[in-house]
C-alpha cells in the first residue's frame, strides 16, 4: 500500500498544567485522535464540531503552530516533530493554510500583490520577475480572477469573497498537496460561498490537492466533503463517509446536532425532542472518566460513566460511532 | 403617483392588523471624502404587532444600519438624511435626545450582535438586570425587584440559581438568554435582534431561537430579526424583508419567500442555501455589487442579475404590491 499523505496517530493535546496560576489545571483539547489522508486520490476530509470541540487545535497541530502532547503527526511517513530543515521546508510548502477571516490576514498598508511576492521570495519559486508574474496570473485564473483587476489594489478595495479566493490562489501557487482550510466560508456571504466551495472541488479533482476542511457547518460539509470526523469536546463522536454520517447519524450527539440545523422551509419545523442546555460547569463535570456527552445524553447508561466508549463500527466503509449503544453485546440483546 | 397607490393598498391590507413600526423612505448616508455611501436608500417597510419580521441580505447591504437608524444610533460619519420612522405613531427621526432616552429600552429594545459579550464581567446577573430596570423606572423595593427578575429569568427558560452568578459561569447560550431577558424587562413594543445567534453552535442556536419565539408568543411583542441564515429565518419569522445594496427588493410572508421567491436576488439567496437533505451541484454567480457611492441608474441588482433587461439599466423599479402582502421591486413583474 502506498504511503499516506498525512497520518495522525493518537494525537493528544493538553493545555495548561504549567505556570503559577494554573498549576495542575489542565484542559484536554484533543484526545487520541486518528486520521489518515491518502496521497491519491485527493480528498476533502471534514473535521466538524461545536466551538471548543478541538477542531482548531487539530488544525494548529497539523500546521505546526502548537506542539503535540503525545502521539504523532506524520507527513509522507516522517514525523513532523523530527523533520530536519530540508524536510520541514518542503512540509511548509506542501501543506498550506486558508483561514477563517479574510479581512484579518492582509496587511492593510500593502497592495494585495504583496502576499504573492512574499511567497515567491520566501520559497524562491520563480527565476525571474516575469516568471513570477506568470505564476501569480495562473494561480489567480484558477480561482477565477485576473491579475490586472486585483493585484495593484489595496485589501479594503476587495470584497470578502475576493479576498478569500486570493488566499486560496496564494496557497495554490505553492503547488501544495494539502490545504488546511479553517472555516474558510463562515465569513463569506451565502451567495459567494458556493464559489469558494467550487474552487475547493476543482482543486481536488483537477490538481490533486487534498483538503482538511474544518467547519462547524454540517451542510457545507455535506455538499463537498468526502470523509468526516465529528468531534465532541476533544474526542471523536462519530466518523465515516460524509454522506452516510449525515444521512444516518448514530451517535446521540450527532443526531441532536443534525436535528438542530434549521431547515430552510417554513413548513418543516425543527425536528426531534425538546432540548435543554446546561451551563458549562455541568457539561464539563463528567469528563474526568466516562463519556463526555453523558451530561446531555438522552440514552445515558451507568456504564457510560465508567469508561469512555471506544469507536464501534456502525455501518460500512468505516462508519464508526463512539457510543455504548452500538457495543456488540448491546446490539445483540436488542 | 404609483407610490401613492401602493400606500393606499398597504394601508388597506393593514387595516385588519395593528402596525407597531412603520419606516417610510428612510435614507441613511455615510459621508466620505469621495462622496456619500448610500447605506440605506429609500427603504420603506412596516412591522405588525406581535409578529417577527426577518431582515436579510448579505453583509454590507444595510441591515444593521437600518436597525441602528430605528434606534437613532447611527454613528457619524453616518446620518439619517431623510424619511420617517413611526413607532406607535411617534416619529423617531425628529425626537430630541431626552425624548429618545424615554423611548429606548422602554418601548424599543435592542439585542445587539454578539450580545453575550456585552454583559459586564464583574457584575452579578441580577445586578445587571436590576440596573436596567431601575435606570428607567426609578428605585424599587428589593423584594418586588427580585421577584420581577426571577420572573424574567423564568420567561427566557433560565433556572433561578443563575440569579447570583457571574457571566463567566454561564455558557454562551445562557448569556444570550440573559440579554433577551434584559431586552424584555421593560415590556417594549418592539425588539430589534441583530444576529442574536450568530456566534452560537446549532444546538444552542435552536434553544435561543425557541426562547425568542416563546417570548413573542407570551408578550405579543413585535420583533425585527436581522440575520443571513435563511434556515433560521424560515424557522423563526413571520415575514421576510430582503435588502440588497441599501434597497428593499422584496417583502413577503415567509412561506411566499421560500415557495415562490420573485426577485432574482431572493431566488439566488434561496438557491444558495446549503442543504443537508440532498447533495446538489453548487450554484455559482458572477458579477459584483456596484460601488455604493455611485449607484448605477436603474435597478441596483443589474450587475449580478441573470435576467437583466434593457429597462433595468434605465429605470429603477419601485417596490410594488404584487399579491396580498407580497412586495417586490423588479421589472419582470410589470
Explained architecture:
The complex is a heterodimer of chains A (334) and B (334). Chain A is of the alpha/beta class and 334 residues long. Chain A folds into two domains: 242 residues, P-loop containing nucleotide triphosphate hydrolases (Rossmann fold, 3-Layer(aba) Sandwich); 84 residues, no CATH class. In chain A, 35% of the residues lie in helices and 20% in strands. In chain A, the strands form two sheets. Chain A has an eight-stranded mixed β-sheet with strand order 6-7-8-3-9-10-12-11, with helices on both faces. Chain A has a four-stranded antiparallel β-sheet with strand order 2-1-4-5, covered by helices on one side. In chain A, a hairpin with a 2-residue loop joins strand 9 and strand 10. Chain A is globular, with a radius of gyration of 22 Å. The two termini of chain A are 39 Å apart. The mean pLDDT of chain A is 84. Chain B is globular and about 70 Å long. Chain B contains ten helices and twelve strands. Chain B has two domains: 251 residues, Rossmann fold; 71 residues, no CATH class. Helices cover 32% and strands 24% of the residues of chain B. An eight-stranded mixed β-sheet of chain B has the order 6-7-8-3-9-10-12-11, with helices on both faces. In chain B, strands 2-1-4-5 form a four-stranded antiparallel β-sheet.
Q: How many distinct domains of chain B?
A: 2
Helix count of chain B, per DSSP? 10
Spatial order of strands in the largest sheet of chain B: 6-7-8-3-9-10-12-11
The N- to C-terminal Cα distance of chain A equals 39 Å
Quick check: average pLDDT of chain A?
84
In terms of DSSP E residues, the strand content of chain A is 15-25%
Number of helices of chain A: 13
The CATH superfamily of the largest domain in chain B is P-loop containing nucleotide triphosphate hydrolases
Q: In oligomeric terms, what are we looking at? A: heterodimer
As a whole number of angstroms, the C-alpha radius of gyration of chain A is 22 Å
Low-confidence stretches of chain B: 1-14
Largest sheet of chain A: 8 strands, mixed
Q: Indicate the overall shape of chain B.
A: globular
Number of strands of chain B: 12
Total number of distinct structural domains of chain A: 2
Helix vs. strand class of chain B? alpha/beta
Distance between the termini of chain B: 16 Å
Which fold name fills CATH's third level, the topology of the largest domain in chain A? Rossmann fold
Shape of chain A: globular
The residue-averaged pLDDT of chain B reads: 85
